[in-house]
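In this supplementary section we document a worked example of the pipeline. Step one takes a protein sequence of length 337 as its only input; no multiple sequence alignment statistics are reported here. Step two produces a three-dimensional model, which step three serialises into structure tokens for compact storage. The input and output of this example are shown verbatim.
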Amino acid sequence: MKHDKILMAHGGGGQLTDSLIHDHILSRLGNEALSPLGDSALLSVGREKICFSTDSFVVKPLFFNGGDIGKLAVCGTVNDLAVAGAMPMALSLALIMEEGLEIAVLDRVLESIAATAKACGVSVVTGDTKTVEKGAADKLFINTAGIGLYPSGLNLGMDQIKAGDRILISGTIGDHGMTIMSEREEIRFQSPLASDCAPLNGLIQGLLDQCPGIRFMRDPTRGGVAATLNEISRATGLNVAIQEDAVPVTLTVRAAADMLGFDVLNIANEGKVVIVVDQAEAGACLKACQDHALGRQASIIGQVVKADSAPVVELVTKIGGKRIVQMPYGRELPRIC
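The serialised model returned by step three reads:
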């Protein structure tokens, strides 16, 4: 379906985002570094390789249980570098502020950015500020870009994935998206929801040190696990089969998703990583995840298999049935990050 105007769904990380990127952006700007559409671009600088990534944050509300737009901005870019295999080094910070934004709110966000950057071991080394008229933005938007060193000898990418590889998730899914939606809709649960927003560089560096069989990693943010698995299937031409009862979901997130009519596989995460690893090292990779504070609830959720026809993502349900997990359309969760 063609659209002559941008819809909210174009920002949802699903089919319309994919169409926007391929039909309008890559068709005009595609190049060797951009066209693979990795979480970060891999660039050669002399004899060294660096990863370069950028992200913008428009989350509503600015503050939520488990985080805020400042923490989200730092973690989002650090995680995009980390899942590409890079060691994050430095960030830029650009603030777009609406006239009337309270200085106390800005200070609170900046303090969160400083604390999160320190915890990640990165520095904010350059930046910019812009102000717009009241009504031209929603309080505060943030853009961050980051660079990281790419270790020599490392070779991660979808082109490394093979049939038989196992798929891991580092913990429970849907926590961030359901926290944002519940606070936006002012829905309260007996067990409070909290975003999983967290920096993954420490966890991922440990995994890379211990598990040379890792083929590919991605943080399943917009579009959730469903979008990530569909991207893997489409890029490789292989099927992805996952077990519903192996996918970790908290009871509160499950209840919230059911109440609001969402599929937890489509919901954004901000502190999880999907890992594709050689089947021979899957057990060791799982243990390495579970030994880290951010990976205690890690699980092997499925595997990559040969496709007899068009590649698909297939879910085996708890009762033994099967259903196709489609790429999300994109309109379900606007302004989630």
